[in-house]
Amino acid sequence: MTTPVPRILDPHAIPVAGIDDHLPPVGAEHLQPLALRRRFEAPPVWTPEIPGDGRRFFEREPRAASVLVPLVMHDDGLRVLLTRRTDHLHDHAGQISFPGGRVDEGDADAIATALRETEEEIGLPRERIEVIGSMPDYTTVTSYVVTPVVALVQPGFTLALDSFEVAEAFEVPLDFLMTPANHRRHQVEIAGQQRQFLSMPWQGYFIWGATAAMLRNFYRFLSA
Fold first, then answer.
1. Burial status of residue 13 (CB atoms within 10 A of its CB: 0-12, 13-18, 19 or more)
2. Which of 22, 70, 72, 202 shows its CA 20 to 30 Å from the CA of 156?
C-alpha cells in the first residue's frame, strides 16, 4: 500500500528555506499585451520547472481540469485576476487559485472548460476575454491534471461571484509575480516525508502551492 502524502494544513507556518532573488525579473517590455501575444504565437523551447505537486494524496483516477490565467489590461500594467476559494470546499479549501474546474462532457477542449468555469465561478463575461495560449499541464496532489489557459482581459467588467465556491476575487500586478525576489521556497518534513512548495505573498494574500507553481512556470516561459 502506498504511504499517504502528508497534507500541509497551515502553509503560513512552514519555514522559508530560500528566496529566489538571484533570478532576474521578467523585463517590463515582455509583460505587454503585444509581447505576450507574440510569445505564444512563436513560443521558445523551454521546460516547465514544476510539472506538478509530486506524489498524490490518494490513488484515484486523474481528472482533467482547466483554469484561466486572466491578465487584466489596466493602463498601469497587467494584473492577474485570482480568487480565494471558500473554506468548506472538499479540495483546496480557502486557497488562492485561478478560476477554473473540471472538464465537462460538453466541453470542446481545455479552453472551453476554462471559459465556462470562469463564467460560472466569477461571472467574467466571455466577450471581455481574449485567449492567447495555453501552458503545459500541471498535476496536483489531488489528482487533477490542470491545463492553464492564458488570456488577456479588457477591464471595466463587474464580477458576479458564485458564493458557494468563491469567497472573493482580487488582482495582483503581473510584474510582482514575475519577479523571483518575491518567490519564497518552503520546505518541511511531515511524518517522515519531505514536502516543499513555493509561495508569493502579496498584501495579506498567501499565494502558494499549485497556483504559485503555475505562475513560476509562466515566469520560466517568459524568461526562456
1. exposed
2. 202
Place of cell 505573498: 201
Could you give the CA distance from residue 191 to residue 7 in angstroms, rounded to a whole number? 10
**Domain assignment of residue 171, yes or no:** yes
CATH of the domain at 77: 3.90.79.10
Evaluate whether residue 8 is within a structural domain: no
The domain of 127 spans 30-223
Q: Cα separation of 53 and 224, whole Å?
A: 22
Rounded to an integer, the average pLDDT of 207-220 is: 97
Q: Given pLDDT bands bounded at 50, 70 and 90, which one contains residue 108?
A: very high
Select the more confidently predicted residue: 5 or 62.
Answer: 62
Coil/strand/helix, residue 224: coil
Burial category of 102 from C-beta neighbours within 10 Å (exposed 0-12, middle 13-18, buried 19 and up): middle
Helical ranges in 29-149 per DSSP H? 33-41, 110-122
Mean pLDDT value of segment 5-10: 65
Report the number of distinct structural domains present in the chain.
1
Q: Compute the chain's Rg from CA coordinates.
A: 17
For residues 7 and 188, what is the distance between their CA atoms, to the nearest angstrom?
11
Of the pLDDT bands very low, low, confident and very high (cuts 50, 70, 90), residue 98 is very high
Residue 121's pLDDT is what?
96
Using CA atoms, how far apart are residues 37 and 31, in angstroms rounded to an integer? Answer: 10
The answer to whether residue 74 sits within a structural domain is: yes
Nine cell digits for residue 55 = 506524489
Predicted local distance difference test score (pLDDT) of residue 213: 97
